[in-house]
Amino acid sequence: xxxxxxxxxxxxxxxxxxxxxxxxxxxxxxxxxxxxxxxxxxxxxxxxxxxxxxxxxxxxxxxxxxxxxxxxxxxxxxxxxxxxxxxxxxxxxxxxxxxxxxxxxxxxxxxxxxxxxxxxxxxxxxxxxxxxxxxxxxxxxxxxxxxxxxxxxxxxxxxxxxxxxxxxxxxxxxxxxxxxxxxxxxxxxxxxxxxxx
Length: 197
Known about the structure:
Layout: H1 5-16, H2 21-24, E1 38-46, E2 51-58, E3 64-70, E4 74-76, E5 82-84, H3 87-97, H4 105-120, E6 126-128, H5 129-143, H6 145-155, H7 161-175, H8 189-196
Parallel strand pairs: 4-6
Antiparallel strand pairs: 1-2, 2-3, 4-5
Helix pairs in contact: 3-4, 3-6, 3-8, 4-5, 5-6, 5-8
């Protein structure tokens, strides 16, 4: 059976791609037959440039599957333990602060993306957990002031009504045009709960 122009173009696309190292990698095991001999047949940028999605084919069984490759960003907790940064954990921690508030899931996802962008912009492969908390405070303050107060009360370990009043006064002054600089004043408790929950 002869191939039409579209099939020839599709076939040529794969034959004309330079044989880069990525396209010849064969170390990924097939999830179906567990064979070690697989090959990359297509690669695409995913997650707004934060990851690469690779379409692979097993040489043994012929089945296809996808893998996602991304750079690891590690969070160093106060006890010295490191774990991968997780947007889902950021969302979970902020979701608790937003409980009972009218905050959409999309807004939480956008906030988690902002937090990741902020901590990745530091250029470091490992970041302290308190930096995650600091990165959460600004966007959360813009999203919902009540949720911000809840999160800040844990993050900054509020001990009294005066701590809340000081934060509320700060919110009022910034709403009326005063400036504000985010600083961690006490132990970063909530940042750890965000990354360990």
